[in-house]
Amino acid sequence: MSGMWRRASVSIKGLVHRRTSIATETLDEPYEITTSKRQQRHTINATWHRLRNATSFRHSRVLYDDSRNNNNNNHYYLPHSVPRPGLGNEPPVIPRNTGSGARAAVAAWQHEMFSTTASPLRNKRLTLDSAQNDRESGIGIAVTSTDPVADAVQDLDMVTPDGEVVLGACAPNRVDFISRLPVELAIQVLAHLDAAGLAIASRISTRWHDVTSLQHIWRDSYLREKTGTFATSEPIRQGTGLGVPLSRPNMDWKDAYRATEELAKRWRNGKATSIYLHGHSDSIYCLQFDEYKIITGSRDKTIRIWDMKTMTCKVVIGPPEVVKSNAILCDSEGKPTHSATFEPHIGADARSKRVTSVPTTMAFPTHHKASILCLQYDEDILVTGSSDASCIVYDMKGGYRPIRRLRHHTAAVLDLCFDDKYIVTCSKDISICVWDRATGELLKQLRGHSGPVNAVQMRGNTIVSCSGDFRVKLWNIETGKQIREFQGHTKGLACCQFSEDGRYVASAGNDKVIRIWDANTGECLREMKAHESLVRSLHIDSVSGRLVSGSYDTDIKVFDMETGRQLLDFPRWHASWVLSAKSDYRRIVSTGQDPKILVMDFGAGIPGIEQLESCPQQRKVEEVKPDPLDHGGYI
To answer: Which residues belong to the signal peptide in this entry (predicted)?
Structure first.
């Protein structure tokens, strides 16, 4: 009987249609074993060939879970046509047309799985070694590090005492990107740090120290950090005398940065070295200065030019009868009358010293016959106003020779200002005059104040003026019309100032109060009870936002424009009334009723402070020599 069945099966096998193998079915396709019956795909091949594949472990994937401990969602990576043993409560799966041999193989396989605990098919918890062999998943892939010590620590953190991988404990990636970048890109990255950040970065490694020592980094950092302003129309331009130097081959930007930081610290602490200049014989009403010179005007009818570097007087300009006198150069004992007294600068042990000088004296047919009350200069001209009701324009590049006289006011010229196009003057005659700078022609006379106009300032096409009538007014210089009036002061005003960008106006006077106004709206932004007597002088440093005031109470004070807070107070540095006080990035220079000039130098003795100057070479006030062919009257 068995022989008949064997011959019949061979006959039927020859009649069965052979199907094509499914090439896309791979051993890597996952298959989920469930209790439901599913239609299985298969191929018709030799029975023993299929049984050989079923019992081979060469193409099967590692099983990652212990089926005896977890009967739910057991996933195995076995092909569909391979017989599978039953796991847990699940029955075995025998594909159709595989014959009795497949059933026997499955039974043997299942018996082997459950009869030994050491079977290689039993799932175990992952260890570091087995995880590293899983090349297609992220398990076991550690974050790399260039530091061997860090790698060792990282490996310890990743493996628990039980041998379990803990990916969440991986240390962050630490790469020295500066060392890997080209120098040009490293400079671009580190140049975004300020001085403190660069100092820290320089201590990280030798490579970082080398890169942070390059001048390009310090230059870019300096120009980014130190060219901002409080109230200017643009950032500080290099080489304009505002504390930002020109770029030049031998420039040490790190020293410049260090000097700037030390200078700012001294401003915060009020640490300044005082220098007193002697030479005038009466009250000094007005002054202007830059990095290299100071020009002063006095009640003694003279204009004097001082060298800021040496603090010596270089030139005296005045009426012939004044400059002819021997007393202008020497005292009764024959000693020079012009001198500078230096206090020891901060950190120095030396005593104060005195330096004398003998200036050149000059007189011209065109001169003032009374007190010099106001002055202003630029690179081309010097303009002075006097109690003789006139102004004189001098040629700065032509030996200070007078160019023309401006005469229209009927009383003393109390203040003046100019730009590239106009010269504006104000007077005790309660008027403001606008002149053409190039020709000296009177263009307009503005009237509107009911008292002496004590101060004027100009920004663009706008003039600000203040008067003894308690009023601050804005004028359009083109039309001559009043734009706005600021009211709030309760007594006569002595001084007013525009910020450089024209947004703010500061005013003060006999009510002892400084007011800051919004120039666009007329609103009073801040009110500062500043002094105990008349406030005679105001100066806005639009770069730093400092407001410097001088008063009849002999004090000089510094305020913060933004908050109105008092920053510094220098009481009684003058022996009498303070008549004028101005400042720049490094100094405050003031004059008063006592005939001496006070220079408060916050940068004295700072290493590298000269790096902040606008010119690489030290400028000198040119020695003015009499011209023998000029019959104008050098004396």
So the answer is: none
